[in-house]
Design goal:
Layout (H helix, E strand, L loop, with lengths): L1 H4 L6 H7 L4 H19 L7 H14 L8 H13 L3 H13 L6 H6 L3 H8 L5 H14 L7 H5 L4 H14 L11 H19 L1 H5 L3 H15 L4 H15 L12 H4 L5 H13 L12 H11 L11 H15 L7 H23 L11 H18 L1 H5 L7 H29 L2 H18 L7 H13 L9 H16 L1 H9 L4 H14 L5 H15 L5 H17 L5 H11 L1 H8 L2 H5 L2 H13 L12 H22 L11 H27 L3 H8 L3 H8 L5 H10 L6 H26 L7 H16 L6 H12 L1 H4 L1 H4 L2 H26 L28 H22 L13 H5 L31 H12 L10 H8 L1 H14 L5 H23 L19 H11 L2 H15 L14 H14 L2 E3 L2 E3 L2 H27 L13 H11 L6 H12 L7 H15 L7 H16 L9 H7 L1
Organism: Durusdinium trenchii
Protein name: HEAT repeat-containing protein 1
InterPro entries: ARM-like, ARM-type_fold
């Protein structure tokens, strides 16, 4: 009741709660104040913005008056003095401290020393968790409106901020890892996250603090960085990055001397040493470290945050493993995968930190990059000299792998900072700064070249570093480039070294070719270099051990030619055609390409099955398998070379002629591969049937997302070998899978050419894409997903293709076919009754019966591929309506433009002829005064657009009524699939759909008449906007709001289709969906589920679109926008009716929602409006009441409260309390 009436209508409550005399009344008062403060920041459908402002103002006022002793502070001190010995009172006070920042500025809380109350809780074991939760809430509200001058002036005083940060930093002193006390780990992790959030949310204010306090924060973060737990280390790195980022601004490059000390000197050396140890690989085998090596790593690590010092580095690694086990509750990942993930995250955060620290400063032209290179060079030299015998011998020997890991870590430190330092130096434009970056890196490169015998693992890492240095070769001398090229090609020349590397599982040849591609891509090679490189590569082509290697070599040459600035375009075209001439001739003469039929492919598979060699590898390239490999190699060479011959999609392509020769055969072969499943399902040859229809191990690993164990692979190979040698059958399947992948990638490379979409090519492209879309229902889900990703997704992910009007015109023909084909597959997989409108008259084949035999061992991979295909389809279709565009859900507000002050009329010379005054119809949206129209038009032209224009593809789709309605129905149908990722993406797509429709209307793009390429040359008039909006937005209530509302209110028993009952697919999705739809609990309160939160956005966007239409109608008729005028907007009335039909929703709730969304007063934000809507949807969801009995009790309680509303008058307050 205080939420509704205090303080204006119930001032007596203040006196009653501020003057308690007993423990029980004190507890009640503290609880009331805490809940009252929390309600300001909570989602509530019965609290308007004005009420929230009143409550916040009332609480804040008691912290200010009287100035000498604020009433609230005095009352709290009195209560603690009288009942501070009662732990319940202290707990309630700490809970109050956690809630107060929602309503009271942190400036007042810190000024009145509320942090000392929290500090008392930190010293108590049973209250420390509550105190840490309060501090976590405080750090988010210290500066809630960063960047706002008014909010900055209302921030805490400097001395209060220093006291608060010092208290938080002191908490880290007790964070000592104890392997025998696992309970303490959670509190240590909570403290680490608290300090990280403090730095992240308040970095700008912290960087301006005095050096002593700032230094204390840096030291606390460094102490957490030495804590043996990956989660705590990541929090520390996050805080360090946040502090380092604002340390340099244009106005104040170095606000304190503390940040500058980290660029050079002992502090940076200390940091580099810790990062060097944390990013080491292969620490699981730390038992093989020698004592000297172990002591060296511990010395780099420094003073660790543990109860007892580790006796060896292996013990430190064991503690890291123990802390990792604390975090693992239920997971599908193996320990090795989790370790790789943590290592990757540590490297990413380390790279961000070093990138910030190496920027130039006023005192040092190169920032800290020179010092980083020097320190990393020392670590590299120590690693190279640490164990020369092992480095020169077997890398698997004791200590060999570990020293290679140290070399890798040292190189990674420089790689992380090099590119950022180069960009900063080039931005400054100073030769001194640029030289200060180039010279240290060149010195470090010479240290990398140092060899102590041949080690394949070390050579592989050197080649990676040479690839990372590609942007620097154009700035160094030609001698450096020549030396680098010689070292890149050396492993290929030394055949024994390649055999040694292959024996150890190291692809040294492939790495050398990738490095050559990277150097060629940088554009550093000149015409003179190309001649020598071409001759060198011709000699090396015979030494390359694999067809894939020769393809990579061709790709490197093509890229070098395309990137050479000294060659003119005709010469580049001539060279590229010469490089690809041999493979193009072979492609034209291939029998498979000439026939391009599924039956021919089936015959090749049968030939490969019948020619199984006695010894694998002896005649493996002969017969049918050899033909498959040849086609695969040619496609790989074509894709690699063509993709490198142009820097950007749809630009004039150097290989346009080659693409024109290859494209017909590529798409014919692609369609033949799509038909292959149907032909194999009908063949009488059991061996061929099982070879084609059963996926290979690579496919199964990709579908399930995990590597198959050797035992599983052996069982699968025996069962699905078809009477052949299991390894030979697996080889045939792998080649078929790779052939499909290479054909799809080659088709994607063709589509990146501008000539592919020009003239006659446009008609062929339309036919090819439509035929490909028609064949999707005949494919397995993982193969269909491959085609979606490689062929159709680039249309929405590559900006030039998204904005090309030629592609947009072609999309009208294949998108309807694609939509219906995908819908047929989803209906079959999920058992849905789809409502996708068939927007094309062309026949689309029905989904054929699933040709894959339903073997139990393949069911998990099939179920996983269904889920993955569904998510990919949802991503693609939602992208067609503009989901991936920046600010895709932001709405234009034309009413703001009409509210601008109209310019004064120009004084004209009075005419002697008396003009007749025209009657003005103020109640018509289509008959406006000409003068007013011109003023409104001029006002709108001065208003800049806040939302970017849509690309051509999205515009074409949204302008075509059948296309946009088909996509909207498709997205609405996806809401019936019980997969959290799919539903979330579909909801975002529906939200974008409503927003983009409104923005196109406001921009004057008449969705019913405009054609492709035609833009409005003038600003739309009010009548035009109202006319178009009334017509187009009629689909929003039933097309967007209705399916979203049904999703929110859908009972638990109906959320999963009956067809999926007791299937493996249901077992996979059941637990994630239940978690997605279940209510969340925060501080012992039931809060909206993730599903409700996601449904809030499309519902809010759709309602806001209709509300803005309603406001515009009212403003045009000079009426106030209120509920009495709703007859002007039937679409809004229908939308509100849909909301009112939700469970547990009354008409009062709908009226309150409408009032909140129409409110334009100060303090009414979109977050508040969304919060009101979210609370309404939450009460309508099944998660609000766990069972039917709870819902019935809730209805009865609501009915009783409505009947007792007359008792809520202030004069009957006591009766109302008794009734409650």
């Amino acid at each position: 009741m205080a939420k509704l009436d205090w303080p204006g209508a119930w001032p007596e409550l203040t006196v009653a709660l501020l003057g308690p005399q007993t423990v029980s009344s004190t507890l009640v008062g503290l609880s009331v104040w805490a809940h009252l403060a929390e309600c300001v920041g909570e989602d509530s459908k019965d609290l308007t913005a004005a009420r929230r402002r009143d409550i916040s103002h009332g609480l804040t006022l008691h912290f200010k008056e009287p100035p000498e002793a604020p009433a609230f502070v005095a009352s709290l001190q009195k209560a603690l003095h009288a009942f501070g010995g009662d732990r319940r009172v202290v707990r309630e006070v700490i809970q109050l401290c956690r809630a107060l920042p929602h309503a009271v500025p942190m400036k007042l809380l810190l000024a009145n020393h509320f942090d000392k109350i929290v500090q008392v809780g930190l010293q108590s074991s049973d209250l420390s968790e509550f105190a840490l939760t309060s501090l976590a809430e405080w750090v988010q509200h210290l500066h809630p409106s960063r960047g706002n001058k008014e909010a900055a002036s209302a921030g805490p005083a400097t001395h209060d901020m220093c006291r608060f940060t010092e208290m938080v930093a002191r908490l880290v002193e007790n964070c000592k890892f104890d392997v025998d006390d696992p309970q303490s780990y959670s509190s240590h992790q909570q403290i680490g996250r608290l300090l990280s959030d403090l730095c992240t949310f308040n970095a700008a204010s912290l960087s301006a603090m005095p050096s002593k306090e700032l230094s204390g924060i840096w030291e606390a973060l460094m102490q957490l960085l030495r804590y043996p737990a990956a989660a705590v280390q990541l929090d520390a790195l996050t805080g360090l990055v946040a502090l380092a980022r604002p340390s340099r601004t244009e106005a104040q490059p170095w606000p304190t001397a503390t940040a500058a000390t980290w660029v050079s000197g002992p502090r940076l050396e200390e940091l580099i040493g810790v990062l060097h140890v944390l990013t080491l690989k292969n620490t699981t085998s730390a038992t093989s470290f020698s004592s000297e090596h172990s002591s060296w790593l511990l010395r780099c690590l420094g003073s660790v945050s543990t109860r007892q010092n580790p006796g060896s580095f292996s013990e430190w690694c064991q503690w890291m493993a123990v802390s990792a086990s604390f975090e693992i509750l239920e997971t599908d990942f193996s320990g090795q995968q989790m370790q790789s993930q943590r290592l990757g995250m540590l490297k990413v955060h380390s790279k961000e930190l070093l990138s910030e620290l190496c920027r130039p400063s006023p005192s040092q032209s190169s920032g800290g990059f020179g010092a980083i290179c020097r320190l990393a060079g020392g670590l590299l030299a120590r690693a190279l000299a640490g164990d020369a015998e092992n480095m020169a011998g077997d890398s698997d020997a004791r200590g060999g792998i570990e020293w290679v890991a140290e070399c890798d870590s040292a190189m990674s430190l420089v790689e992380s900072a090099a590119l950022a330092a180069l960009k900063s130096a080039e931005k400054e434009g100073s030769k001194e700064m640029l030289e200060a970056v180039l010279q240290p890196l060149q010195v470090f490169l010479q240290q990398v070249y140092v060899q102590r015998g041949f080690n394949p693992a070390m050579e592989y890492r050197r080649l990676e570093f040479l690839s990372a240095c590609s942007p620097f070769y154009k700035l160094w001398s030609e001698e450096v480039l020549r030396d680098a090229l010689a070292r890149v090609l050396a492993p290929i020349r030394l055949e024994p070294s390649l055999r040694d590397a292959r024996a150890k599982g190291i692809k040294l040849e492939q790495r050398a070719l990738d490095t050559l591609v990277s150097i060629s891509k940088s554009g550093v090679l000149k015409a003179a270099h190309l001649e020598a490189l071409n001759a060198e590569c011709l000699d090396l082509a015979a030494k390359v051990s694999s067809a894939a290697g020769r393809s990579k070599l061709t790709e490197a040459l093509t890229l070098a030619v395309a990137s050479c600035s000294e060659l003119d375009r005709p010469r580049k075209v001539q060279l590229i055609e010469g490089i690809l001439e041999q493979v193009t001739t072979a492609w034209r003469s291939s029998e498979l390409v000439q026939s391009a039929s599924a039956q021919a492919l089936l015959d090749v598979v049968a030939s490969a099955a019948s020619s199984s060699p006695a010894i694998l590898g002896v005649e493996e390239d002969l017969g049918g398998l050899g033909k498959l490999k040849d086609i695969k190699t040619m496609l790989s060479t074509f894709s690699g070379a063509v993709s490198r011959a142009s820097t950007e999609a749809l630009e004039p392509h150097l290989a346009d002629g080659i693409i024109a020769d290859w494209a017909p055969g590529i798409f014919q072969l692609l369609q033949a591969l799509c038909h292959l499943y149907v032909f194999a399902a009908g063949t009488s040859d059991h061996t061929v049937r099982i070879l084609v229809l059963t996926p290979c191990r690579t496919e199964i690993d990709a579908m399930t997302g995990r590597a198959m164990s050797p035992e599983e692979e052996e069982d699968l190979a025996k069962e699905f070998s078809g009477g052949l040698d299991p390894r030979w059958a697996a080889s045939i399947r792998v080649n078929l899978y790779e052939l499909r992948s290479h054909v799809a990638k080659a088709a994607r490379a063709c589509m990146a050419s501008g000539r592919f979409w020009d003239g006659e090519g446009s008609a062929k492209a339309s036919e090819w894409l439509q035929n490909t879309a028609k064949l999707l229902p005949a494919l397995r889900p993982h193969v269909a997903e491959l085609l979606l990703k490689e062929i159709f997704q680039p249309l929405v992910r590559v900006p030039p293709m998204l904005n090309d009007p030629r592609i947009a015109s072609v999309s009208k023909t294949f998108i309807p076919t694609l939509c219906v084909a995908i819908s047929a597959l989803l209906k079959e997989f999920w058992g849905l009754e789809h409502s996708v409108r068939k927007t094309t008259t062309r026949a689309v084949p029905d989904a054929v019966p699933d040709p894959l035999p339903r073997f139990s061992k393949l069911e998990p991979s099939h179920a996983a591929s269904v889920i993955s295909f569904t998510r990919t389809s949802c991503y693609l279709m939602s992208a067609f309506v503009g989901t991936d565009l920046p600010l895709s859900s932001q709405l234009e507000d034309p009413a703001q433009k009409f509210l601008q002050k109209r310019p004064a009329p120009v004084a004209a010379t009075p005419s002697r002829k008396r003009q007749k005054n025209r009657n003005k119809n103020r109640f018509s949206a289509l008959e406006e005064d000409v003068g007013e129209e011109k003023n409104e038009q001029n006002a709108m032209q001065t208003e800049p657009a806040t939302v970017a224009r849509r690309p051509a593809l999205v515009s074409v789709i949204l302008r075509d009524q059948q296309l946009r309605e088909g996509l909207r129905c498709f997205l609405a149908d996806l809401l019936l699939i019980p997969d959290p990722d799919t539903v979330t993406r579909a909801l975002v797509g529906l939200s974008t759909f409503s927003a983009q429709l409104w923005n196109m209307i406001v921009h004057g793009e008449d969705l019913s008449t405009l054609s492709l390429g035609r833009e409005s040359t003038r600003t739309p008039e009010v009548g035009e906007i109202l006319h178009t909006a009334s017509d187009v937005l009629r689909a929003v209530p039933q097309g967007v709001l209705a399916p979203v509302s049904r999703l929110v209110a859908r009972p638990v028993s109906e959320q999963i289709s009956q067809k999926l009952t007791e299937s493996l697919l249901e077992g996979i999705i059941r637990h994630p969906w239940n978690s997605f739809a279940a209510a969340t609990w925060i501080d012992a309160k039931r809060c909206p589920s993730t599903l409700v939160c996601e449904c809030t956005f499309p519902t809010f966007t759709s309602l806001m679109v209709l509300v803005r239409l309603f406001k515009l109608q009212c403003r045009k008729l000079e009426l106030s926008a209120e509920a009495a005028q709703l007859y002007l907007c039937p679409s809004l009335v229908e939308a509100l009716r849909i909301i009112a039909e939700l469970p547990n929703t009354s008409q009062d709730d709908v009226d309150m929602l409408l009032t909140t969304m129409l409110d334009e007063g100060k303090g009414t934000t979109k977050d508040l409006q969304r919060g009101t809507l979210r609370a309404l949807l939450f009460e309508a969801s099944p998660a609000f009441a766990e069972d039917h009995e709870d819902q019935e009790r809730l209805k009865a309680t609501r009915k009783w409260l409505v009947s007792q509303t007359t008792c809520i008058a202030p004069i009957h307050r006591g009766n109302a309390v008794d009734a409650w």
